[in-house]
Structure formats: structure tokens, C-alpha cells
Specification:
10 strands, two-stranded antiparallel sheet, alpha/beta, 233 residues, 7 helices, 8-stranded mixed sheet
């Protein structure tokens, strides 16, 4: 069986809709919880796909969260080997850092369902089904610059760098395409402090999710399926 390892920073920010899609394609799925499980035990030679998920810490918070050093080592090794890796939000920021790009605060939060614009490269990439997405879920306050070796795939009005790729095997997404609309309530509970500090009413996010969630899930599944098809070719 093929193997996917996902590094998770919060229990509810898992692979979401990507998880059952991978299992249906014959992947054996393993989660490693950062700060709990020993990341150094991951043997990348036995991993067909590495997924680095989101979380509320900063990509350069090594002193406060020492496990980031080991996580960065894994990401750097993976990128150097040119084998499949997907980074989501914090995971994409860590990938950008590993590729020599800057990561830092936007000075504001981008939280909620919002539009996304694909670049010309994005329209030719696995993200192309997002042309038909009504909205995507944004949830971040930091942003990455596009690494010199990467292509910009998508932007939003509040954050110009939303996705990048390096070849066909490395994909970084600032937005949360993986989030399962049926589990949004876990996000609202887990991030209640952040929502309150940002002045965001969770009821508004519930309404947006009810309006856009089902259609976004269909489009997201199409994106992930297209990317996995490219990997398997």
C-alpha cells in the first residue's frame, strides 16, 4: 500500500475531506501530532506523500516551539528529494521558509469564506477546478512570499500569495481547501479566542458554511483528485 503521513498541529485541523479520498485510492494514512509524537521517527523513504497541516503558531516560532526544528528538517529533506508534499496554511508557510522565502504577519486576519483568483499558472494546474468554486475558507494572519523556485497559483484581495507549486510534487495552500464543512463547528469552538479577538461572529461563519460548504467540498475533492492523478502519473 502507498503511505501518507500527515503532521498535525491541532486535533481538529486534520486532513478533512482529503482523508477519505486518500484511503479510497489505497493510501495507508498515519497522523503524527506535533509536540506529542516524535517526528524524528518518520522515515521519509517509506512515505509516498507528506502532508503538513495548519495551526495557530508562527512559522518562525522555533524558540517557543522547539519541535519546529525537526519539522523543518523533514520538510527540507522532502523538498530536496523532489517527492510529493502538500502544505496547508502553516504547512505551506513552513514549506516557503524551507525554500528561502519570507513568512510574516499580514497585519490583519483573513478569516471566513472569500473569493480566490487563479493566476495563469493556476488555471493550468490542479487548482483549475477552483474556477467554479463560489468561495474558499480562509483562516490565517500570517502570509508567505513566493519562493524563487516556485510558481504563484492563486491570490485573494486581502492576501496576494495564496498558493504555490514547485514542479508537480510540491503544493502549498494558504487557504483551507481540506476543511470538511460538516466539521466547521469544531473550528469555531477551537478558535473561539481568535474569533473573539478579531471581532468575528461565529454565526456569520455558520451561515457562510451553510451557503457555500457543500459546493466547495465538491470542487475541493476535484482539485485533490486532479493533483493526486498528477502524482500517480
Amino acid at each position: 500500500m502507498k503511505t501518507v503521513v500527515a503532521i498535525r498541529h491541532l486535533a481538529f485541523e486534520d486532513m478533512g475531506i482529503l482523508d477519505p479520498l486518500l484511503r479510497s485510492r489505497g493510501y495507508n494514512v498515519h497522523y503524527y501530532d506535533a509536540g506529542v509524537n516524535e517526528l524524528w521517527t518518520i522515515d521519509l523513504d517509506k512515505v509516498d506523500l507528506l502532508v503538513v497541516l495548519g495551526g495557530p503558531i508562527g512559522a518562525f516560532d522555533d524558540e517557543q516551539y522547539p519541535f519546529l526544528g525537526e519539522e523543518m528538517r523533514l520538510i527540507e529533506q522532502r523538498l530536496e528529494s523532489n517527492r510529493p508534499i502538500l502544505g496547508v496554511c502553516l504547512g505551506a508557510q513552513l514549506m516557503a521558509r524551507a525554500l528561502g522565502a519570507k513568512v510574516g504577519s499580514m497585519g490583519h486576519k483573513e478569516i471566513g469564506f472569500g473569493e480566490l483568483q487563479l493566476t495563469e499558472a493556476g488555471l493550468k494546474s490542479a487548482l483549475s477546478p477552483l474556477q467554479d468554486a463560489p468561495m474558499v475558507l480562509h483562516w490565517h494572519g500570517d502570509q508567505f512570499e513566493i519562493p524563487a523556485s516556485a510558481q504563484l497559483l492563486a491570490s485573494s484581495n486581502r492576501c496576494p500569495n495564496q498558493a504555490f507549486s514547485v514542479g508537480h510534487n510540491a503544493l502549498g495552500l494558504q487557504f483551507h481547501l481540506e476543511a470538511d464543512p460538516k466539521k466547521l463547528e469544531q473550528w469555531l469552538i477551537g478558535h473561539t479566542g481568535e474569533l473573539s479577538a478579531a471581532g468575528i461572529d461565529p454565526r456569520a461563519l455558520r451561515e457562510q458554511n451553510a451557503k457555500h460548504g457543500d459546493r466547495l467540498k465538491q470542487v475541493a475533492e476535484a482539485v485533490f483528485a486532479k493533483w493526486l492523478d498528477q502524482l500517480e502519473r
